[in-house]
Amino acid sequence: MIAPLLVHSTTPLFVRSTLLDDLGLDDLLDLLEAGPAAGVEYAWVRGDAGAVAGGVAARWTAGPGDPISGASAWWAGVRERLEHTEDSTGAAALAFGSFCFDPDHTSAVPVLVLPEWVLLRRHGRTVLVEASTTPFTAPAATRVRRLRTLRPPATPSPAWQERAEGLDADAWADRVAQGVKRILDGDLEKVVLARQVTATAEAPVQLGRLARRLHRDYPRCWTFLVDGLVGASPEMLVRREEGLVTSRVLAGTIGVHGATTPETLAAALTSSSKDLQEHEYAVASVASALSEYCTGMNVPDAPYVLELPNVLHLATDVTAVSRTGTTVLELVEALHPSAAVCGTPTEVARRLIAELEELDRGRYSGPVGWVDSEGDGAWAIALRCGELDRDDPRSLRLYAGCGIVADSDPDAEVAESEAKLVPMRGALAPGQP
Ligand SMILES: C=C(O[C@H]1C=CC=C(C(=O)O)[C@@H]1O)C(=O)O
């Protein structure tokens, strides 16, 4: 058989970056809320920094489940084609993406896109970064004026209903019990099992509004919107910033409920051997994957407690220095799937997930984030999220998963998965923001 010839485009991609003095975070959030219906299809926001973007200057053409390595190679080719205009501020070009959890068990298509425009807010400054296959003819101000005309949806968020997809909560609890049995049998040490529910609204889901609400309610999480995938993740798979690498590993959870104080919940979490064990597996998987690509790694001895409005997590922030030339996409490829979303050992857990979950996770629990032309970027794990049904814009698939170890109790895991669904259910609330 003759190997297919890979033809990489060598035509230039023009990049222009412009400093905008009069656009602040609220303007970006207004655009975020305008959402895909207004052409704002990509976003990444946390606290008072972030980016919103739209249009397509270049797109990785991927098939269902294509691996991250393909995206990495495509981006390397794109980087060579970038030509910054002379009047540019020098800001790097940015691509947004999201990858599948398990390339072998999905019909979902991963994404990596260099948008036509990105509004980037960082360190109190806003920059417009534009990319185009043809030289710019109109001034940046023309685009800014057009963006300023975009408005959030005028109609209230529609009412919606939920149904379990595949396994209902009881059937899923039974799968958790089967997972525990396999662990006790000695097949593996940890497996993360997820369940899915489908939210169907009376009118198309307003993804931008969901994203804005998620950012309002979960400002410490990374709110993302990439090609119909929207969520607010508390877990940073990997960030690379001028060679410094950080990863926030989460595993071990307690739901916030009733009148129990955060202090009491935190004490229960930090003394739970089941949660500590679950956490250790996740940290070990990240540390071992990073060690090949980094030096000077720092892994704290004990986790801290990350407090969110719906749950408390055991958290460990790993830091390291990336070897010269390693891009964030290569780190993402090395780290995914960590034991926070798959299990230990990875391959055994991945097979068990496919067997027990009866679910196509799609891009849920895969990496989601951005990479720039310097190879820097930030990629969260797509958790606490929903994916729009491409055939029905009124339907959103919501997911929640739980780490299972030998001591896990199926009913407690169902309760934990319910707590993890709270952010998306809250964001879907009908009515005005
Ligand atoms: C798989 C999910 O969460 C992971 C991340 C943090 C804590 C987890 C846990 O305690 O089970 C999970 O490993 C999810 O939210 O769907």
Automatic annotation (TrEMBL):
Domain of life: Bacteria
InterPro entries: ADC_synthase, Chorismate_C, IsoChor_synthase
Entry GO MF terms: isochorismate synthase activity
Coiled-coil stretches: none
SUPFAM superfamilies for the chain: ADC synthase
Keywords in alphabetical order: Isomerase
Pfam families: Chorismate_bind
Gene3D superfamilies for this protein: Anthranilate synthase
Signal peptide limits: none
EC number per UniProt: 5.4.4.2
Keyword Membrane (UniProt): no
Catalysed conversion reaction: chorismate = isochorismate
Residues covered by the Chorismate-utilising enzyme C-terminal domain: 169-420
Homology family: Belongs to the isochorismate synthase family.
Protein name listed in UniProt: isochorismate synthase
Species of the source: Auraticoccus monumenti
